Amino acid sequence: MKRIVTLSLVLAMCLALLTGCGGSQSEQTQEPAESQGTEETGSTGGSEAEFVWVASCANTEDHPAVQGVMKFAELLEEKSGGRIHMDVFHSAQLASDRDCIEGMQINTIQSGIMVGSALAGFTDELLVFDLPFLFENSEQGQKLCDSDVGKEMLASLDDIGIKGLGFMEYGMRNITNSKLPIEKPEDLQGIKIRTMENQIHMEAFSVMGADPTPMAFGELFTALQQGTIDAQENPLSVITSSKFNEVQTYLSVTEHVYSAAPLMVSKAAYDALPEDLQAVVDEAGMEACVWEREYLAEAETAWLDELEAAGMQINYPEKDAFVEATKSVYDEFVGDEAGKVSPELLEKVYEIIGRE
User: Fold this and answer.
1) How far, in Å, CA of 57 to CA of 233, rounded?
2) What percent of the chain has pLDDT over 70?
3) CA 27, CA 90: separation in Å to the nearest integer?
4) 40/55 same-domain check
5) One domain for residues 181 and 323
């Protein structure tokens, strides 16, 4: 019911601005232009565009993926000759990840970016990314994303009313906490850690002795600050942009999951475009994904230095014990049933990334 109300409010906001004008895509006080992928009849979003879209991002404005979506918006306008204009809303101003997905399905939101894990309740095709310690580094994750298998994963989003344009990334996920350096799985014993509402993530931390606690991302900083929870796990891009170093002492570079992030658009909005503009969206999406990955790669080394300079204690645990501790997760979540990773898909992934 809450999600329905939220989406209704989004639609109401859009309709209310039919005759209004929007500001810069980076302004936090802007309102979304009325669009829904249909031909535009008024001047909105500072543009005389035929098609005016809105994009929703949960992370802060300086997060690489949000910057990537802003790059996508820039490329859309440039390559379409101004026929497509897209306003980008960051920091969950417009919607949470889940509400963004549902908004794209009903075309009240035309574009969004989030980690594939957030799609777990909508499709099983991306679950393989959630298996712990499957990827040793981002390069292996990118190999899967750029393979024919990765393209098939994106194409599967059509079944839920969303079109995947390509994969951006958040990077490898790591653990921060306020108790101690995490050097081995036993160090997680009794640690209350915020996770996404993702069964594979939760089980992985449970078998290592932690107390996984799903929580909305918007509540996370305050919960860490108040000591309601002890720890959280996210890529450096999120740890840095969300300033978790201000409320967490230890950063353990566990690299336990690779966070691929599909760049998505509403299939209804995409299908409403003429063929020449569909080609523009495809091209702009792929270019934006390449741009975002390069942006992220350049930033990650600097972030570690910045976090250490800010006082975080950083350690690099050996992964073998963690890999061994989470083997049972594969036994539970790899199978042919719904909600599990296909064994055939996992074999293909092993082949692509060069693992046996």
Assistant:
1) 19
2) 87
3) 9
4) yes
5) yes
Q: Which among 182, 189, 175 has a CA at the least distance from the CA of 231? A: 175
Nearest to 64 by CA among 316, 312, 234, 247: 234
- Is residue 132 in some structural domain? no
Q: What is the mean pLDDT of the chain?
A: 88
Residue 30 forms part of a structural domain: yes
- Residue 172 CB contacts under 8 Å (≥ 6 apart), including other chains: 135, 137, 138, 141, 235, 236, 255, 256, 257, 258, 259
Q: Residue 64: which CATH number?
A: 3.40.190.170
Residue 99: exposed, middle, or buried by beta-carbon count in 10 A (0-12, 13-18, 19+)? buried
Position 30 confidence tier, pLDDT thresholds 50, 70, 90: very low
Q: Please write the tens of the pLDDT for every residue from 187-230.
A: 999 999 999 989 999 999 999 999 999 998 889 999 999 999 99
Q: Output the CA torsion sign for 79, 81, 86, 87.
A: positive
- pTM of the full structure: 0.84
Same domain, 65 and 153: yes
Q: Say yes or no to pLDDT of 137 above 70.
A: yes
Q: Are 77 and 47 in contact (CB under 8 A)?
A: yes
- Do the domain assignments include residue 332? yes
Buried b (16+ CB within 10 A) or exposed e, 186-223: ebbeebbbbbbbbbbbbbbbbbbebbbbebebeebbeb
Residue in the structure block whose two tokens are 């860490």: 224
Alpha-carbon distance 300 to 269, whole Å? Answer: 34
Residue in the structure block whose two tokens are 């997905």: 101
